[in-house]
Amino acid sequence: MDGRRKIFFIGGALAVLSITAAWLSGCTTKSKAQAEAREAYLAGQNAALRQQQAQAQTPGVTVTGPVQNSQVPWVAGLTLAQAIATANYLDSHEPREIVITRQGESAKLAPKELLNGADVPLEPGDVIEIHP
Q: What is the number of domains present in the chain?
């Protein structure tokens, strides 16, 4: 073998050895990484679904945003203002927007309307998003 062929052969052999070593050490292929990512995504979705089902079994209202208590027990006659007060809004500024979601349908409410007395009756399972 001439010098160039020996270098090529040695380089090729090293490449095969490094690929084999990587495979043996658990190097992840693109398809395996995609499958693992898909499994992780589905696991997250399932966890969220279980959480939603658990919340549906315990009647209450969920309040998201800068609040101390995100779960507010539902009682007959519960209003938006009462739920926000029970959740204990923590931000020093008034919210810029409040969104109420009921059975997949959302409605926005300007906080000034709430402060001016336009309170909204809530139902079990409602989700209130407070956007500071």
A: 2
